[in-house]
Amino acid sequence: MSAHEAFAQSFRRGIFDGELPQGVTARDPAEAAQRFAVYRNNVLHSLGRALAARFPVIERLVGADFFNAMARVYVEADPPNSPVLFAWGEGFAEFLEGFPPVAALPYLPDVARLEYARGQAYHAADLPALAPADLGALAARADAIRLVLHPSVTLIASGHAIRAIWAANQPGAAPQEIEDRPETALVLRDRKLDVPVWALGPGEAAFARELLGQAPLIRAAEAAATAEPGFDVGPILFRLFAAGAIIGWEDCTC
Amino acid sequence: MTQLPARPGLGFKPEHFSQIACDPDLGFFEIHAENYMGAGGPPHAMLTALRADFGISLHGVGLSIGGPGRLDTAHLARLRALVDRYQPESFSEHLAWSSHGEAYLNDLLPLPYTDETLRIVCDHVDEVQEALGRRMLLETPSTYVLFETSTIPETEFLRAIAQRTGCGLLLDVNNVFVSATNHRTDARAYLAEFPFDQVGEIHLGGHAVEELPSGPLLIDSHGAPVADPVWTLFDEVIARTGPLPSLIEWDNDVPDYPVLLDEARRAARILRAHAPQAERTHVCA
């Protein structure tokens, strides 16, 4: 191992366990530990802030002090593997599932999944969307095509009211009682480049799930009607087109 | 390739986007490359609009040029894509390391200055310049500790990197002041040894002050106005170099846009005071 590699290993270890790395000193060597602590604090604090920037609702739900302490545990367990920090945190929901201090808040992991999906949607590719005017011609061929969704579109099915919890914990939102119920949330980036979260009913959720699974349009509509008898896919389909969530279609043999 | 204008620049903050307008005291914006490595969305929409009106300095924080490992080729490819797409006037990175193994530590960590690290940093700078097809600027660090193993003074280390690789230097005047104060040395003695002919850009930022038994420990916080002694050093540097692109960095507790513009105007006054008469008329970008 090169001297520089040994140095970097020792320095990194020191950041997490607090031991003064080999060779670190100061004009007054008695101050070396206090000075090294600046780096420890920078790393742990800045990564904690980066995580909070990705998961602001989780931070609000558990409080800033708790979040910072939890972030230190998470940083050590699942540090970012790239300087592109907005891609970090995919494993945070799973971490929350296995983190005993938050066991009493069983909705946290799915709220984290929702927040992660919003972050990814924000940075998703720019692709031209079909116009609502295209809808009529496509609907007539529902048995022969599948729709291509914008890469920002994500569906999160939860046993908890994650859309309601997310909305009630936006900046400036007032606290409210939320009935805990299963909820399916759809995340997308719309034509104004905003990233809204929609709560979907059972028919809408089944329809969106089939579309994301690249099912033919007619099969998606059938699945929606099975999930919610009498369900009309027209309104949700129009809403998806209007928001810019549909970027194309493909012929299929159905 | 055009160069950054020898005028003040600001670190771009998306929350200021709607207030940004052409201004004779504003020549460029600096962006942190890693924030623009997504495929699309608002970051690229804003950067495209900014690019149309201003010079762009692409500033990386994640290459870990001072680290022992190989550079992350995926990250280099992402940087290359940004360079190709936006054609920034400048690309700069730090004399520091930030990754080890698979882990990214999100801080600019210090390194001992030795023959070994000099060789490693030069290899990394060569690799970056090769991958991006252009000259880069390497930024002077702020440090809080010293290393028993260091054998080369920082100014000599930087001069050798510039000589061997052909890279330019980004002189962060606040970092010079922070390090000199922290190590109880003299910032002017450091600057007297600095290879000014290689400097392509200046950084100016605010710092925080802590107290240690032996005196102050300055933290390079980028969360405050530029301190008066740093403005004085900046004036002395520009008196020697002539006007250079000069960035106001304010990344934490970001103030309202007019506060940043006031800092830029203060830098502009100093740059104008040292500009030849003919260069004093500025037009909007």
Please characterize this protein's 3D structure.
Chain A has 254 residues and is mainly alpha-helical. Chain A has eleven helices and six strands. Chain A has a three-stranded antiparallel sheet, with helices on both faces. Chain B is α/β, with parallel strands linked by helices. Chain B is 36% helix and 21% strand. An eight-stranded parallel β-barrel of chain B has the order 1-2-3-4-7-9-10-13, surrounded by four helices. The model of chain B has no long low-confidence stretch (mean pLDDT 96). The chains are: A mainly alpha (254), B alpha/beta (285). At the A-B interface, helix 1, strand 1 and helix 2 of A face helix 1, helix 2, strand 5, strand 6 and helix 3 of B.
Determine the mean pLDDT of chain A. Answer: 96
Tally the helices of chain A: what do you get?
A: 11
State the total count of DSSP E strands of chain A. Answer: 6
Mean pLDDT of chain B: 96
Spans of at least 5 consecutive residues with low confidence of chain A: none
**Biggest pleated sheet of chain B:** 8 strands, parallel, barrel
The number of distinct helices of chain B, counting runs of at least 4 residues, comes to 8
Give the termini separation of chain B.
16 Å
Q: What is the helix fraction of residues of chain A, given as a range? A: 40-55%
Number of domains of chain A: 2
SSE run of chain B: EEHEHEEEHEEHEHHEEEHEH
Architecture of chain B, according to CATH? Alpha-Beta Barrel
Largest sheet of chain A, order of strands side by side?
Answer: 3-4-5
- Succession of helices and strands of chain A: HEHHHHHHEEHEEHHHE
- General form of chain A: elongated
In short:
The complex is a heterodimer of chains A (about 250) and B (about 280). Chain A is mainly α and about 250 residues long.
What order do the helices and strands come in, and which of them pair?
The complex is a heterodimer of chains A (254) and B (285).
Chain A: H1 3-17, E1 24-25, H2 32-54, H3 56-62, H4 64-77, H5 92-97, H6 108-122, H7 135-139, E2 145-149, E3 154-158, H8 162-168, E4 183-187, E5 197-200, H9 202-212, H10 217-227, H11 234-243, E6 246-251
Antiparallel strand pairs in A: 2-6, 3-4, 4-5
Chain B: E1 8-11, E2 28-32, H1 42-53, E3 55-59, H2 73-86, E4 90-94, E5 97-100, E6 103-109, H3 115-132, E7 137-139, E8 146-147, H4 154-165, E9 168-172, H5 173-182, H6 187-192, E10 199-205, E11 208-212, E12 215-219, H7 228-241, E13 246-249, H8 257-273
